[in-house]
Amino acid sequence: MTPAVDRLRQDFQGLNTRYHLADGRETPRYYLDSAASTLALRCARQVADELLRYYANAHSQAHFSARIVNHAYDWAHRQVLNFVGSSDSGHHVACFAGSGSTASLNRLARALAARRPERDIVLVSLMEHHANDLPHRRHASQVIHIPLTGAAPMLGAVDTAALAQLLGQYRGRVNYVAVSAASNVTGIVNPVHDIAALAHAHGAWVVVDASQSVAHAPLSLSDTGAAERELDAVAFSGHKLYAPGSPGVMVVRQTLLEGHEPDELGGGMVDDVSVNGYQITDRFPDREEAGTPNIPGAVQLGAVLNVLQRIGMAQVHAAEQRLLRRLLAELTAIPGVRVYGDLDLDRTPRLGVISFNLVGLEHGLVAAVLNDYHNIAVRNGCFCAHPYVRELLKPELWELDLDPDADDAEALIQPWRGMVRASLGLYSTDEDIDVLLTGIHDLLANPDHYRAQYQADSDGNFHHRTFTVSAASLFDPEAAVERTLAQFSATPVL
Ligand SMILES: Cc1ncc(COP(=O)(O)O)c(C=O)c1O
Fold this sequence. Notes:
Blueprint: H1 3-8, E1 12-13, E2 18-20, E3 26-28, E4 30-31, E5 40-41, H2 42-52, H3 64-83, E6 92-97, H4 101-115, E7 121-125, H5 134-139, E8 142-146, H6 160-169, E9 174-180, H7 192-201, E10 205-209, E11 233-237, E12 248-253, H8 254-257, E13 270-274, E14 277-280, H9 295-311, H10 313-332, E15 337-339, E16 353-358, H11 363-374, E17 376-377, E18 379-381, H12 386-399, H13 409-413, E19 419-423, H14 430-445, H15 447-453, E20 454-456, E21 462-464, H16 471-474, H17 477-486
Parallel strand pairs: 4-17, 7-8, 7-9, 9-10, 10-11
Antiparallel strand pairs: 1-5, 2-3, 6-12, 11-12, 13-14, 15-16, 16-19, 18-19, 20-21
Helix pairs in contact: 2-9, 3-9, 6-7, 9-10, 11-14
């Protein structure tokens, strides 16, 4: 990393947050939950704040401010297209929607089903987040899950041979293939361009959920420039891209949306409306963005993409890979730690997400101890990817004599069904990893001591018996409002 990039890595809001811990210490927070949401890149936020000086609604050119805002909002769309290497030929359009990729994926599922109802099957990989599975289940007649390579718990990426077989078996019926660029559970990377080539050879489209990869690795609509390897649609979330408060994004081949009435109707996307009818504009992205958009959020997101492009995603990726390799090597060397997914990074590349369990300890207990005693923010559970987590855990559940495929499996396998997830961001450091490894060693050395400190509730959450911290004592929006207003007046605010 160059010195400039190293300085940029310090420019995230929340890196100096400190909390009091159960053992009486006060330490910095170690944020290893970037797969859920990343911290905010301050300089990108500043760009959006600067825009607020001129803020006005878009959808007008009448006054200076409206023109400035339109210009900035268009710029944000262009940053998205530049970032994914969209050529100037206008094949793809970028649209902002909702608060994350869920909105984009629902929209895509509806639009693609309506476009070719005769193709009634969607192939969805087994490793998907629910956001890239359930919308397709709702809108296609049938979703078939594509198996992964290898065997649990060491499952790899999408099995392209199995995909080819499914495409052949259901020739003429597969509308599209939906896969993630990288898993939110294991960080395992899918060969999305190979998948696109296979899908296209069978007349199917490919929808890629890039929520976990866009901030961590280069992402290009076509890796070689070849049309058959080009992705038809890509979705991602701004809040996983160092821009909390920004919208979800969809980049989609324009022809897939043309002629299809958008799902949301309202202002800003019609050329004419009379009491008897309305004329939807042909202009993209306007026709897909009814209503007043989240302009500051989109501009913040555009600013992040611009900054990342200046750094170079290859450099961002390389820095994260170094930390990932270290974390993976050291975790797997600890007896009693089980890491999920294929561990051979040369055979199965990953991004900076690792899910693990400590043998004999519930995932909820591990996450609680790491938080309360080590100030480490990790996540635990099934990460909104139940089919994948269940598949990865199958051998363990069988060992416990539990049948993961039984109808009542859900109730039986709690609290064992789950994992602890540590995930990296641009600001992650070796110190984060040192602290995590120390916490894990500590837990494995003193399991009974820690277990005695906690009681579990019926949802599998572990609560410390004597140490409690109320969220409101750390940050209370009401108190923050009062503090802010206090600067305007010495009189207390009613
Ligand atoms: C791979 C993946 N896809 C989709 C989503 C859904 O994103 P959002 O909640 O921002 O809509 C997530 C969120 O965790 C994810 O990790």
